[in-house]
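pinned: reference chain
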Amino acid sequence: MIPNFFSKKPIPDKLPLEMEKIVEELKRFESKEECLKQAYGIMAGRYRGYRMRTYIRIHEAFCTDLEKLWRKTGFLHCHVMNYLLRVLLVKSGWFQDDEIELKYSLVWYISPHQYLRVKVGDNKFINVDVWNAFYGKKFGDFARGFH
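pinned: its structure tokens
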């Protein structure tokens, strides 16, 4: 089974130094939603999904080493990006891990895909899908079907 796809990997105590600096920036925002948007922008600037590389580079889906993952840029699998985003959000102090839900859809109606649903208010949730930002999905939307 692919780690972090159907269950959450625990948030580590120690972070890579560069990641720690970003967490310090995220702590300065004035709301959960601002923090989430900023973290999403940082992640979308570093990483992206590729539909075919998801299969061609399936061996990379099993990596769980935070240091190694953070050093990479470019392609990462959806669940790996979501793990990194969860770490940023929880470590920012704005979110508890139980406010971040793993959600699933099917891309091309056959390919399993993970995105996040993040609680930003009493009854307000925002879908977050960094993997698909490159394909034009906006903040608050997620990959599904042929879109």
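why pinned: The chain has one domain: 17-135. The domain at 17-135 is CATH 3.10.620.30 (C8orf32 fold).
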